[in-house]
Amino acid sequence: MSVSNKGFTLVEVLVVVLIIGILVALALPEYMKAVERTRLIEMVGLLDTIAKAQQRKYMQFNHFIDNIASLDVSIEGATGDTFYSRGNPVTGEHCNGFEVTLHSEDSFTTGYADAVRYIDNGEVVYQYTLTRLYGSPNTTCSSDQERGQGLCADFCGIDQAVASCCSNGTNTACVENND
Asked: Are 161 and 146 in contact (CB under 8 A)?
């Protein structure tokens, strides 16, 4: 009588686990970068909304507003000139998003908002800052960190990572109005 085993050997199982581990190790960094790109694009949209709201306030009062609650942008719980995009909007507790600050300069070409990648308790893998002049359609992405610079280069559509680039495709910070 012959015995027929229809299972896997331990070596076969270990080889499959090893292959899966290698695939995960290769795919995880790209997945994390894709998630961060999504966060970046979401924040660019919010900065655009803030810039447009500030433009309306400038037309109404001839100056920008330094309190987010005074804008016609609905950000629940946000007050003052600084708020957090995730977690507690005032303290940044439990935040895994951005610290957004309004800079209400008097000139139409110098007022801006910036968003700094922020995590309440932990290390930011991609550290970068997005800056949007209220009078400009473009956003500057800047970073002192290698990973952040690579992400900014992807966002700006340039081939080489640089410390600062503009969403219009240049490898320098965006300039004032009419980029």
From this structure: yes
- Bridge partners for 115 per DSSP: 100, 130
pTM of the model: 0.84
DSSP code of residue 68 = G
- Rounded CA-CA distance 94/120 in Å is 6
Q: Which residue, among 77, 155, 68, has the nearest Cα to 113 in the 3D structure?
A: 68
Alpha carbon distances (Å) from 106 to 51, 63, 99, 136, 144: 14, 6, 23, 15, 29
Distance (Å, rounded) from C-alpha 142 to C-alpha 137?
17
> pLDDT tens for residues 15-58?
999 999 998 888 888 898 899 999 999 999 999 999 999 999 99
The Cα–Cα gap between 128 and 149 comes to 7
Residue tagged 């949209």 (tokens): 45
CA distance 32 to 179: 31
CB-CB contact of 65 with 104 (8 Å) = yes
Residue 132's beta-bridge partner residues? 113, 139
Alpha carbon distances (Å) from 144 to 34, 99, 141, 158, 177:
20, 17, 11, 17, 25
